[in-house]
Automatic annotation (TrEMBL), chain A:
InterPro entries: PhaG_MnhG_YufB. It is found in: Membrane. The keyword Methyltransferase does not apply. It comes from Bacillus yapensis. The keyword Membrane applies. GO terms for cellular component: membrane. PANTHER family: ANTIPORTER SUBUNIT MNHG2-RELATED (PTHR34703:SF1). It holds the Pfam family PhaG_MnhG_YufB. Belongs to the CPA3 antiporters (TC 2.A.63) subunit G family. GO terms for molecular function: sodium:proton antiporter activity. This is Na+/H+ antiporter subunit G.
From TrEMBL, chain B:
Belongs to the CPA3 antiporters (TC 2.A.63) subunit F family. This is Na(+)/H(+) antiporter subunit F1. The chain crosses the membrane at residues 6-25, 34-53, 59-82. PANTHER family: NA(+)/H(+) ANTIPORTER SUBUNIT F1, NA(+)_H(+) ANTIPORTER SUBUNIT F. It is found in: Cell membrane. The lineage of its organism: Bacteria, Bacillati, Bacillota, Bacilli, Bacillales. GO terms for cellular component: plasma membrane. NCBIfam families: PRK12600.1. It is a multi-pass membrane protein. Keywords: Antiport, Cell membrane, Ion transport, Membrane, Transmembrane, Transmembrane helix, Transport. It holds the Pfam family MrpF_PhaF. It comes from the Bacteria. It comes from Bacillus yapensis.
Length: 117, 94
């Protein structure tokens, strides 16, 4: 039983670390701000939530105390990280950061110009 | 077994932070740097969770909430500064 618990915790932690690594490589490799923001605000969020859930399972099942702060941390990161990504992306668009050269479609261009921000 | 997995995960997260620091230094625009710093803050949360498993203590778990909140507030403040050039707007005097 103990081994099974350890394996489940290890899987959660490993998946989380792998997703964070993938997010960081996306932030290096992708061509413009918006795609980098896409990588960073999704993959890093899921990876950190997975690591925190592994830590929660460790403290609950192995050490034996229920730790509500980790659950609060999971909920908080799940709520705030996409919002922060959205705000940064909007600020980047409104301050005039260019899209990638090969991107073909920009729905926001006419709306922003008509509202004259 | 769990110790080895935690070491490998810490190595992966440290590598991710090095990659993000590369983007902070090189990033052509300011939102790039803010995105990378936000992701560094979130990776730091995961590193603290792993270190508190490694040390078998639950004394550091408040730091997780604290770093999450501080990263969010810092990112929101930077985004507002980029967009509106001020952080705190003045009240209208009429």
């Amino acid at each position: 039983m103990n081994e099974i618990i350890n394996i489940i915790i290890a899987i959660f932690i490993f998946v989380g670390a792998f997703l964070s690594l993938v997010a960081a490589f996306g932030v290096i490799r992708l061509p413009d701000v918006y795609t980098r923001n896409h990588a960073a605000s999704k993959a890093a969020t899921l990876g950190v939530m997975s690591v925190l859930f592994g830590a929660f399972l460790y403290f609950y099942l192995v050490e034996g105390h229920f730790n509500s702060r980790l659950l609060l941390g999971i909920v908080f990161i799940f709520m705030t990280s996409p919002v922060a990504g959205h705000l940064i992306s909007r600020a980047a668009y409104n301050t005039g950061v260019k899209l990638w050269d090969k991107s073909v479609h920009d729905d926001l261009k006419t709306k922003v110009k008509s509202k004259d921000i | 077994m769990l110790d080895i997995v935690i070491r490998i995960a810490l190595f992966c997260l440290a590598l991710a932070m090095v990659a993000l620091i590369y983007r902070v230094i090189k990033g052509p625009s300011m939102p790039d740097r803010i995105i990378a710093l936000d992701a560094i803050g979130i990776n730091l949360v995961a590193i603290i969770a792993l270190i508190s498993i490694e040390l078998r203590t639950n004394a550091f778990l408040e730091i997780i909430l604290l770093i999450g909140i501080l990263a969010f507030i810092g990112t929101v403040a930077f985004a507002k500064y980029l967009e509106k050039e001020v952080l705190f707007e003045r009240e209208r005097d009429h």
